[in-house]
Design a protein that fits this description.
The complex is a heterodimer of chains A (360) and B (433).
Chain A: H1 2-20, E1 24-29, H2 32-50, E2 53-58, H3 63-71, E3 79-83, H4 84-92, H5 113-116, E4 126-139, H6 151-154, E5 164-167, H7 171-180, H8 188-192, H9 195-206, E6 212-215, H10 220-227, E7 232-236, H11 237-246, E8 251-266, H12 274-284, H13 287-293, E9 300-301, H14 328-331, E10 335-336, H15 339-358
Parallel strand pairs in A: 1-2, 1-3, 5-6, 5-7, 8-10
Antiparallel strand pairs in A: 3-8, 4-7, 4-8, 4-9
Helix pairs in contact in A: 2-13, 4-15, 7-9
Chain B: H1 7-16, H2 32-74, H3 84-92, H4 101-116, H5 120-130, H6 135-145, H7 153-160, H8 167-176, H9 183-188, E1 191-193, E2 199-201, H10 209-240, H11 243-258, H12 261-272, H13 277-285, H14 300-324, H15 328-336, H16 341-369, H17 373-378, H18 386-395, H19 400-424
Antiparallel strand pairs in B: 1-2
Helix pairs in contact in B: 2-19, 3-4, 4-6, 5-6, 10-11, 10-14, 10-16, 12-14, 14-16, 15-16, 18-19
The chains are: A alpha/beta (360), B mainly alpha (433).
Chain lengths: 360, 433
Amino acid sequence: MKKVLILTTALCGLGVAAQAQDKEVNVVSWGGAYEKSQVEAYNIPFAKETGIKVNMMAADNPATPLKAQIEAKNITGDVFDIEVSDAIRLCDEGALVEIDPASLPPAPDGTPASEDFIPGALRDCAVANIFWGTVIAYDKTKFPDGPPTTAADFFDTAKFPGKRGLPKNPKRTLYLALIADGVAPDQVYEVLDTPEGVDKAFAKLDTIKKDVVWWEAGAQPVQLLADGEVTMATGYNGRFFDAMVAEGKPFEIIWDGQFMDMDMFAIPKGSPNPEAAMAYLKFATDTQRLADQARWIAYGPSRKSSAALVGLYQDGKTEMAPHMPTSEEHMKTAVMDDPEWWADHDAEMAERFNAWLAAN
Amino acid sequence: MSNALDPHAAIVTEAGGLDPGGPLRTADGQPLTRALARSSRRARRRAFLLVLPLLLFVLLTFLLPIGQMLQRSVKNDGFSANMPQLSAWFHEHPRGTEPDDAAWAALAADLTAAAEARSIGLVGTRVNYDMPGTRSLFTSAGRKARGGIEPPYREAILAMDEKWGDPKLWSVMREASSAYTSNFYLAALDRTRDDDGNITMAPEQQQIYVKLFQRTFWLSLIITFTTFLLGFPIAHLLATLPMRKSNLLMILVLLPFWTSLLVRTTAWMVLLQQQGVVNDILVWLGLIGNDQRLQMIFNQTGTIIAMTHILLPFMILPLYSVMRTINPSYVRAARSLGATSWTAFRRIYFPQTLPGLGAGALLVFILAVGYYITPALVGGSSGQLISNLIAMHMTQTLNWSMAAALAALLLGGVLLLYWVYDRLVGIDNLKLG
């Protein structure tokens, strides 16, 4: 008993000593295949190069534990992988460490980081690592006479029969309705900013309301398509890619009107290992690391210079570049997330959307 | 005055200190009352120490968080703590006062300070709760104000954005200038305040919470009733079969109970979806055509079916434990006295099961009211419950005050029902096992 006590005390002592020199860093991310891609592309080489141990923790949405830790004034994570709207919000609330773009490593050809990152990927307190798209996917076998090709086809249940899978939130449905209604991708938020624009979006959604199966978790749209419960669904491009390439499902993706989101690394003020956290953030968002991640998951690197380095999928034969939401072709019709607008209208739209759902 | 031979009287007098001459004493000469009190105090202390861990546990993990939640539902100092000068101006000047130069100066000073302290986002978030679309007004003003605002303040701030002159904005800021507010409860009841601070209904397309509260209680009632319909005969069977057989059946009741909730919910999706097993069988039997497949999931029906299945053991187990103790000779006696089997059941057997039924119904109902994951997965648009919106405010909009207000209302509703139950049936009649 005494021995155990001495041993644990010694271990605790070691832990404290290690913390003082930042020999570890706690990263909170989303779990699943996404986390695996980060472990393979960032954590393993980072530990090898610096000797700093990376503790990966999974959360449904890392912003939730982050907010809880800030509220409780007990920060245990060092780096959080959060959505851009949360990054901006928490930055405005003074909870995050500011990041100087000049301190980030430049591209291999010497382009400074501030020009190398895709516009919007660098924020005051956060740096994006990947771009991901919410895209439409359909089951090829269900449309033998010519497949759907546009967002408008998604709303055309006469020509393309079958149920539709849509996420149960306003952010990833309203834009699609407007695109299908003929609004240009870069006009979506201008239109949404007017009450008539919002009415218009809901009116378009009304046309397929009875045909929609609403999903909540990212795995559901893939399942719904695979079960034949819906013939078309919107979902995250990485999930569809997995089903198509890894599981050989007969799905096809429509990139027209994809909705682009970023995942960002942010460091809360008062984190236990601030130096290691900053070192990790800089390491993980350099050109090579971001390109490496695409080997493991079909999400697009946030640096332009990474695109050329994106190679093959882990199966060793699938070329990843055409599956990237950030490829030039796919970017043309993409709707970029507008986090500022959503920070203003999040609750209002959520209430209206839920009221709309509940009304039969 | 009292009988000296009565030991009780002696103790009473000793305690009152009236008769120091002849109290009863223990063997070591102490007054009996003191020795008694001491030993009982020791016993009480030991008993208290035994329950102390549980008490602390309940206090720390149950009462404290609930208290915090209740506090959060009425308190949000995002504005008042970070805009002190303007808040002070609001307190000095009654509602209806036009913002004067002092008010604009206070606003300018607070904006500059909040922008420098990077707390402007907190202020904007708080105001945005009551007036959507204003958060960016504050954050963008904060960015512009970082170098300081030059007088005249009114013109300078209006030059940033004309919305700063909106009387509604000033009314909302006045509301927010006090850390304590009832606005979250108002919003949770689909109500809002107009420019003069009067309570009005929220815009119709925004009204959702009252409807979902009603739906939550209504669906919970239906689920409670269906678990009763299904669980009562099963519990009766379990209670009356010989031990060996009933144990086997009991395992069938408990096995799903021990299976992961998600697995059971997903299993229902596989069974009930349009391309699922049940529809396939119906089509195969020719009862419905291939294009008339029934929509049994991703709506209210799915929520009711899945939740009934998941909550069934909570009805069966208390019923079973009560039914086991019912003496079968009562029913036999009723039958021998000429009652029909229905009358014997209705007047003799059923009333005796009420304690178990009450416990089971209360358990199922309270669990159903707060259920989250099952309605989220199989509820579609019409099977959503209030807990799904609480979760939305917790994780998506991060408006924890609103989530707390909704949760507090739900808690209040459940406590109210508990009270009604106590008045009608009596909590003492509850039997869990």
